UniProtKB/TrEMBL annotation:
InterPro entries: LSM_dom_sf, MS_channel_C, MSC_TM_helix, MscS_archaea/bacteria_type, MscS_beta-dom_sf, MscS_channel_2nd, MscS_channel_C_sf, MscS_channel_TM-2
Name under which the protein is recorded: Mechanosensitive ion channel family protein
Family: Belongs to the MscS (TC 1.A.23) family.
Domain Mechanosensitive ion channel MscS: 107-171
Organism of this sequence: Bizionia argentinensis JUB59
Amino acid sequence: MNESIWTKLKDALLKFLIDFGPNVIYAAVALFFGLFVIKFTMRLLRTFMNKSHMEPTLKTFIQSLSIFVLYALLIFVVGTILGIEASSFMAMFGAAALAIGFALQGSLANFAGGVLILAFKPFKINDLVYINDHLGYVQQIDILYTRIKTFDGRLITLPNGKVANDDMDNRSIEPYRRIEIDLNFSFDEDFDELREIITNALKVHPDLVKGEPIQVWLTGMGDYAMKVSARCWSTSDDFWNVYFEQMEAVKKALDKNDIHLAIPKRLVYQGDKN
């Protein structure tokens, strides 16, 4: 009985080696050669990307995607040599992709948004941006999230799916920005005198953009005051420093000339008690 079982096992093993032995050897060779090709290909890819001016995050994304595709292709080739039908692989990958898609719907949206951001580059590291009611400098762009640092030192993490689909104001993309200071003055003030005083206060700043105008305009008239807008230009990098310094300069110039901003007033009429 035992000898019969061992004989059957030896016959089955011999038949397996005869039928599948060559395929196993070919598959092992293909696996070894494929691993070498993947390693060599990734080395060439990294060398090429290091010499290019590609975004660091995009480099990481391309490397990760390339490794996934190359290993998936290697598994497919080895499985085909072993006799696994291509349709079986397609069904397996399709089922896996469907399951992952349902489980990671939000992450896939962020992934797609990250691809769009890296491809179209609406902003880059160190740009000053206004996104989803947050103003700050871009610190990091990952494939799933974008991180910005606000002026008060907070680090805001934003999902790329939302970033890619909402309005985004990049305040560093243009070299120059216009500074606007809005003021309200009494109707009793002489507007020509106001224009001269404010213009003289603004034009002395050393970091203004040469060739760009300094303007003081009457932009509206309200119930109790005339609305004045003072405008000048600075570089995008110096915007906030120039803005605050120009505010101080205008305030000091108005104080020096004894000119005060308008204060809201209300007239209250009291009817005859009789």
